[in-house]
Amino acid sequence: MSDKILAVNAGSSSLKFKLFAMPEEVELFQGAADRITGPGDGEFSYKKTGEEKVKLSLNMPNHEVAIDKLLEVLVESGAVTSVEEIKGVGHRVVQGGEFFKDSVLSTPENLEIIESLSSLAPLHNPANIMGVRAFSKALRNATQVLVFDTVFHQTMPEVNYLYPIDRKFYDNHKIRRYGAHGTSHKYVSQTTAEILNKNIADTSVIVAHLGNGASITEVVAGKSVNTSMGFTPTGGLIMGTRTGDIDPTVITYLQKVTGFDADGVNDLITKRSGMLAATGFSNDMRDVEEAVENEEHPHHAQAVVAFDMFIKKIADFITLYAADIIASGKSLDAISFTAGIGENSSTVRKLVVDRLAILSAKIDEVANSTRGTIDITASDSKVKILVIPTEEELMIARDTVRLQG
Ligand code: ADP
After folding, report:
1. Given ligand 1 and candidates 241, 270, 311, 341, which is best to mutate, with the most ligand atoms within 8 Å of its CB?
2. Which one of 94, 185, 285, 338 would you pick to mutate in the ligand 1 pocket, going by the greatest count of ligand atoms within 8 A of its CB?
């Protein structure tokens, strides 16, 4: 007998959801509510599997209104006959700090810990908690499970998560590398092992999660060993609007020359930097690629340099992690691309792999031009190159079932 499990991701003004029949892992229904809390009406969209997408304009002053609407359309569309059928709700929680080494059941104590970690993820954790509270109220009989973005990276060794600052800052303030996108890196590395037809314990894989937020993870024997994001998701690669790694004194110097306080500079490096600033016009990779191709584009010259910076940084991290795998006496089995850019941009994949000559990695251009889960390895490549669409919601649903008992 299958259970209906809802996987949700509550942001400060958004709510994304997917309903699965478990353990069959069949996706029944999905959608999102955007611009919750306004201003004005927000957009509520949903799609029952096999049917057309429905888009509604809806005033949603808070998340409860969006959740009530979701429960209403779940029944109305026939995805469930009654909301009582939903046995579990799995929630994405961005920052679990060092407290959580696995997903957990939602309890008042666990929510309190997540609240106490809010200073490490001020945009995300409070919104995630709000989602858990609202769903707990709306679906009193469903098990609420918390699935953390950081858990997968808790296996990193000290040498990769400590920063070279006084140890007391780690001891007293927990300043260290946490990483993010853990659920995606876990799913993609597991799926990579399946595609390679190898026991995960015998695999060494590099996962490139390239979306608006982007990170690269070195996964050995199914465990995260190192990852490009750091204390917060601003570190590592050049992202849509985030700087990625940068000389730390740029920050203090910026404070001096702009007069911005810490929050002001934080806003600058997280929301107004990255590809948006480097190209001078857009953080959307489709726009950037178009500007690179079109010499008449007003931002062509800037876009060319920004795009090169973006590609080079990805290849740099892959090379670094590959070298670490090889130095530990293992060989790199595969590089797997995922997320919005990794899944959709054949150009980004090609240019990145072209920079990996040191690994004798080569792409098959015909395979690279297709979509879905694909092996894009050239016949003379020493490393497998894969594209694997990420399934964070499915991972959340799996953990919800596992913890339901
Ligand atoms: P996030 O979840 O971090 O918001 P996504 O994984 O949804 O990000 O990825 C969003 C990014 O994917 C955007 O930069 C978008 O431009 C890029 N993207 C989507 N489709 C394509 C495409 N066909 N070619 C290039 N980039 C694409």
Report:
1. 341
2. 285
79 and 131 part of one domain: yes
Q: Are residues 74 and 198 in the same domain?
A: no
- Global pTM? 0.94
Kindly list the averaged pLDDT for each block of 10 residues, start to end, along the chain of length 405: 92 92 97 91 96 96 94 96 96 95 97 92 87 93 96 98 98 95 97 98 98 96 98 95 96 96 94 96 97 98 98 98 98 97 98 98 98 97 98 97 91
CATH number at residue 254: 3.30.420.40
For residue 393, being part of any structural domain is answered with no
Which DSSP helix (H) or strand (E) runs through 14? none
276: CB partners within 8 A, 6+ apart: 240, 241, 282, 283
> Is 308 marked active-site?
no
* Domain assignment of residue 159, yes or no: no
* CA end-to-end span of the chain: 15
